[in-house]
Design goal:
Shape: elongated
CATH topology of the largest domain: Spore Coat Polysaccharide Biosynthesis Protein SpsA, Chain A
Number of helices: 21
Strand content: 15-25%
Structural class: alpha/beta
Distance between the termini: 99 Å
CATH class of the largest domain: Alpha Beta
Number of strands: 16
CATH superfamily of the largest domain: Spore Coat Polysaccharide Biosynthesis Protein SpsA, Chain A
């Protein structure tokens, strides 16, 4: 009976999917397997599951490793195995019971470097129409040929058997590639495949070696596909290689080619300009503009807005601060430093520090079990604060070119600025002047447990301060030294009211609006 090792790593795939995958491996026939399950986050249930499903021929070894990405995990596995042959398998796949032996028979028959098999989908919901394109099938790591054996140029890492000796010739997996925290980077398998080909070794496709790829509903979305294409561009940029579709393009590939190309090129250019930035220090400001614009475009593609929601998390305290710019966010962050046990830092460094604790997405545990608070502000006052801080402030004159292609120019009048802002639709609005009510919900779920009004900040924040034993609020970014009403006339007040009508109604600023109109009318009489 053949013996081999199998390397399987998990980042954060759920237990219900992972355990189905492990169960299918425990049922492999006519082969002895030592399966290294490399978990990047310890999970007691899976650890027990591995122990319970081991048998005389299939032995599971659960190992907790650092969450540094899939390529790092694969290289850890290669250091630990002692067999001539090694399988790679993903935690969202289900193997046919003869999958492993069919690959083993093929690699010994052809005496090649690697063999790979057929991968079919199990869709959690109806696949998108665009999935008929062969390129999209490749994004989901699907492969199927109607032929018994076929010489192949590339394998997908979740359905492959390699001769371990090949790594002595070509080296291990590139740890700059492959899935990592917060990214959909790939390319580690194609790079190994390419090195095998360059060494004049063969990869053979085996039609009998069949597995099923479980595709969850969160991946059956256009946003996921756009994100995956974007990181495909970054991957090729890192590799400095041209894009190449493995399968023959069909009618759908040609029809959707512009859709495929845009996010890919954004990712590719991001790497290109990042490399250029490292080489040309004297051109830093120019590259910074391009990079900022690039990030903004990506945010729009991924989140359908230029600036997605921002959540600052404190896991130990189970606390979330829903951050809205121009609503005392700097002061709040300084007070919350108590929870980070951080040393005193300046106003610029505070925002950099909180990037590590910030997220654009929340999981179900965070939504249900964390205490969430938010600060809201009079929209008329907030817009003036944005104007003074971002347009009149000479230290922040770069703001006008970073957004809207020079639409917001420095030293323009408040009236001109406000009218331009009010013409920008919500989904294109930058975070300093976007509506506040959109931060109340995440995926149609109402978030805040506690709402603080900027106008009553000190008193309202006292509850949070006592609950979490925070320091008192310092005072930063005092943009409005002049009463905000002085910036308005009656016509402009009505324009701004129409733009931020939902904020005014939801948060109860109708009284302030009426007072502003009255103030403007009295000002005209003088």
């Amino acid at each position: 009976m053949f013996s081999a090792s199998l390397i399987m790593t998990r980042y954060k795939e759920p237990n219900n999917i992972t355990h189905k995958s492990l169960e299918s491996l425990s049922k492999q026939k006519n082969i002895k397997l030592t399966i290294l399950f490399l978990d990047q986050f310890e999970n007691i249930e899976t650890k027990k599951y591995c122990k319970l499903n081991s048998n005389k021929n299939i032995y599971f070894k659960y190992i907790r490793i650092k969450p540094k990405g899939n390529s790092y995990a694969k290289n850890i596995g290669l250091k630990l195995i002692k067999t001539k042959y090694v399988f790679f398998f993903d935690p969202d796949q289900i193997a046919n019971e003869f999958w492993a032996i069919n690959l083993m028979n093929a690699i010994t028959k052809f005496k090649c470097a690697a063999v790979c098999g057929k991968t079919l989908p199990i869709w959690e919901k109806k696949p998108l129409f665009i999935s008929k394109a062969n390129l999209i099938k490749e994004l989901y790591s699907l492969k199927q040929y109607n032929i018994k054996y076929k010489e192949e140029k590339i394998f997908f890492g979740g359905n492959v058997l390699l001769n371990n000796n090949i790594f002595n010739k070509i080296g291990n997996f590139n740890e700059n590639l492959g899935r990592q925290k917060g990214t959909l980077l790939s390319g580690e398998d194609s790079e190994i495949s390419n090195l095998i080909y360059k060494n004049k070794e063969k990869i053979i496709y085996v039609n009998k070696a069949k597995i099923y790829h479980m595709i969850p509903k969160n991946r059956i979305t256009y946003l996921w596909i756009i994100n995956r294409l974007y990181y495909g561009g970054i991957t090729k940029g890192i590799q400095n290689r041209k894009p190449k579709q493995l399968s023959k393009r069909n009618l759908y590939d040609w029809a959707f080619l512009p859709f495929f190309a845009i996010p890919y090129m954004i990712g590719r250019f991001k790497i290109k300009y990042s490399k250029l930035f490292l080489k040309i220090n004297h051109n830093f400001k120019k590259i910074k503009k391009i990079k900022d614009l690039n990030d903004i475009i990506f945010n729009f593609i991924l989140y359908q807005k230029f600036n997605p929601q921002k959540f600052i998390l404190f896991k130990k305290e189970k606390l979330i601060y829903i951050d809205i710019s121009k609503n005392a966010s700097t002061s709040i962050k300084f007070s919350l430093l108590t929870l980070l046990k951080s040393k005193k830092i300046d106003e610029i460094e505070i925002h950099k520090l909180y990037k590590k604790n910030s997220k654009n997405k929340l999981n179900s545990n965070e939504i249900e079990n964390y205490f969430k608070f938010i600060v809201i502000r009079n929209p008329f006052d907030r817009l003036v604060s944005c104007y003074v801080d971002k347009i009149l402030n000479k230290k922040k004159l770069n703001y006008h070119y970073r957004y809207y292609f020079n639409l917001l120019k420095p030293n323009t009048s408040f009236e001109t600025f406000a009218k331009k802002i009010c013409k920008i639709p919500e989904f294109l609005s930058e975070r300093h002047f976007s509506s506040q009510h959109i931060s109340l919900y995440y995926k149609n779920i109402y978030l805040p447990n506690y709402i603080i009004k900027f106008e009553n900040l000190k008193n309202d924040f006292e509850f949070i301060k006592k609950k979490y034993k925070l320091n008192s609020l310092p005072h930063y970014n005092n943009s409005n030294k002049i009463d905000y009403k002085e910036y308005y006339n009656e016509e402009l007040a009505k324009i701004v009211y129409n733009r931020y009508k939902k904020d005014i109604n939801i948060f109860g600023y109708e009284k302030e609006y009426k007072e502003l109109i009255k103030y403007c009318k009295n000002k005209n009489k003088l």
